[in-house]
Amino acid sequence: MITLSNVSKTYGQGHAAVEALKPLDLHVPEGTIYGVIGLSGAGKSTLIRCVNLLERPTSGSISVDGQELTTLSGDALNQARHRIGMIFQHFNLLASRTVFANVSLPLELMGVPRAEIRQRVAPLLELVGLSDKANQYPAQLSGGQKQRVAIARALASKPKVLLCDEATSALDPQTTGSILALLQEINRSLGLTILLITHEMEVVKRICHRVGLISAGSLVEEAEVGDFFTAPRTQLGREFITEFLKLEPPRALVERLDADPGDHSHPVVRLAFSGDAVSTPLISRLARDCQIDVSILQAKVESIQDRTLGLMIAELIGPSDKTREAIDYLETHDLHVEVLGHVQRDA
Amino acid sequence: MSSAMLDLILKATLDTLYMVGVSSLISALLGVPLGVMLYVTRPRQILAQPALNRVLGVVTNIGRSVPFIILMVAIIPFTRMIVGTSIGTNAAIVPLTIAAIPFVARLVEGALNEISPGLIEAAQSMGATPLQIITKVLLPEALGGIITGLTITVVTLVSYSAMAGAVGGGGLGDLGIRYGYNRFDPTVMLITVAILVVMVQGFQSLGDHLVRRTDHK
User: Fold this and answer.
1) Nearest CB to B137: which of A84, A85, A94?
2) A302 DSSP β-pair partners
3) What is the CATH number of the domain that holds A132?
4) Which residues of chain A lie closer than 8 angstroms to B127, CB-CB?
5) Which domain holds residue A282?
6) pLDDT tens track of chain A, all 347 residues?
7) How far apart are CA A214 and CA A199, in angstroms?
8) Which residues make Cβ contacts (< 8 Å) with residue B217, sequence separation at least 6?
């Protein structure tokens, strides 16, 4: 539905040139919710603005619903933009217009007759749950309500694609949840393809099907959301997951961690397991089969949409050949094992 | 006070209202579009024309920097060309309008500057043409600021019109100079000043009222 090929964006020229986006490819299949995550300044905003040509890419091509956009300008581009809705972090509602008139705006721009606008706006307000606020002004609404108006407005022209630019970043966690639920609902009921950018893992975890990780203008990792959470392939990906899941070894332990194994030290490992591994009694089997002791320091289970993800920090206590064997054992059972270090144990 | 004097005061008041009214109207009709042009032709704006923007900026600044009393005298040939005379209320309207146009334009540009760039971006994402952005986003969103600017302009024109009176423009300024100053009649002087004060108060209150009506923040 959305395909970016070799898209790059450079601001300025010569020595002052800043490469905001390095040439990248991105494909968002029809009906999916695709999340692009990255730190601020990574190029997320530039990326999403390139999709509807608010930023014209320096190179590459952009196709939305089978239509090549980069060759368009003027009226043809405006026509194409009617089929791409967009919502923003700061809502960008017109303070001078009522809720009803804000949602009407895209239809007015398209030259839809008044009577038809009236018929089309009412169901949109109903969809976002604001039928009773039609005649209020944005200043009278809460942040979440404003974003609902913005969503209704973005849907007014019946777009195939919705772009969300940090749509929940200005909202509190509870309101974020209700806006995400609404986005998920319109994705399911209208079959709308959604491309969103965010710096919040929560957003990706709750509603995205696929995720792309962007860093310094490059798409460094791309995966199904379940795979990304259970087995990120890049260091940055792991940092995002760790930060999000907040499963860090206790500080006192970190200070005692040694990168190299000593004569009387034991490995401390971080285990990530998903799917069948979650429900298998692996730890007790490990203790039995490898004849070691396992001291669990921290553990938690997260549900990532329909997948379950278990995380654990544990110390493997036993002779070094046994603990090595134990790590192999865990890896053959599809666990992601990361050795955080070794800790000296008083005999 | 004689009834002849009262008639004079009444006529002078109507003359002032006429000069201020006509010059305000024309300067708004020309100044608002100029202000919009100054804004939308800026670099990276919806109708970016950096060269044109610079030219408009310089012309506007020249208009703003010439003192009104000098402008009035300097454009006498132009005034004669337009209204056929350089004396009287109609002749005063020309320099008043010329002085007010760049004034209005800068105030309108300032009001547009207050609009969040995000609103323009949102309108562009909806496929709005530049003209649609101007008429459906910029002007409605800046309406309060524009009315504030026009109110300041009207009040400024009231005092400028009194200056125009000094060089034969008629109106309250003319009356105040001729009767209040030259004939040293403090009553007439006081009355003309009082009427000007009431006039300014009235315009300011009307402007404030209109701004409140448009404000939904």
Assistant:
1) A94
2) A309
3) 3.40.50.300
4) 77-82, 106, 109-110, 157
5) 247-344
6) 999 999 999 998 888 888 999 999 999 999 999 999 999 888 999 999 999 999 999 999 999 999 999 999 899 999 999 999 999 999 999 999 999 999 999 999 999 999 999 999 999 999 999 999 999 999 999 999 999 999 999 999 999 999 999 999 999 999 999 999 999 999 999 999 999 999 999 999 999 999 999 999 999 999 999 889 878 899 999 888 878 887 777 788 888 888 887 777 889 988 888 777 777 788 888 888 888 888 888 888 888 877 788 888 898 888 888 888 888 888 888 788 888 888 887 54
7) 10
8) A95, A139
| Buried b / exposed e along A309-320 (16+ C-beta atoms within 10 A) | bbbbbbbbbbeb
User: Which residues in chain B are contacts of A92 at CB distance < 8 A?
Assistant: 116, 118-119, 121-122
- Rounded to an integer, what distance in angstroms lies between the CA atom of residue B175 and that of residue B11? 10
Candidates 3.90.740.10, 1.10.3720.10, 3.40.50.2300, 3.30.420.150; CATH matching B3-214: 1.10.3720.10
ipTM: 0.88
Domain boundaries, chain B: 3-214
> What secondary structure does DSSP assign to A98-147, as a single string?
-HHHHHHHHHHHTT--HHHHHHHHHHHHHHTT-GGGTTS-GGGS-HHHHH
Q: Is A167 a member of any domain?
A: yes
Q: Which helix (H) or strand (E) holds B125?
A: helix B117-125
Q: Determine how many CB atoms are found less than 10 A away from the CB of residue A305.
A: 14
Do A94 and A193 sit in the same domain of this protein? yes
Q: What share of chain B is helix, strand, coil (3-state, %, to 5)?
A: 85, 0, 15
A132-136 long-range contacts, CB within 8 A, separation 24+: A133/A99, A134/A98, A134/A99, A134/A100, A135/A98, A135/A99, A135/A100, A136/A98, A136/A99
Which residues, 6+ apart, have CB-to-CB distance to B188 below 8 Å?
B5, B9, B175, B176, B179, B180
Q: Which residues pair with A165 in a beta bridge?
A: A197
How many domains are there within chain A? Answer: 2
Neighbours of B24 (CB within 10 A): 24
pTM: 0.87
For residue A166, which of A88, A49, A51 has the smallest C-alpha distance? A88
Number of C-beta neighbours around residue A53 at 10 A: 20
- Which residues, 6+ apart, have CB-to-CB distance to A258 below 8 Å? A265, A341, A342, A343, A344
The 8-class DSSP code of residue A15 comes to: G
Which of B116, B126, B137, B138 is best to mutate for the A interface (most A CBs within 10 A)?
A: B126
Q: Which distant-in-sequence residues (6+ apart) come within 8 Å of A255 by Cβ?
A: none
Residue A316 to chain B, least CA–CA distance (Å):
55
Q: Round to whole Å and give the CA distance between B136 and B143.
A: 11
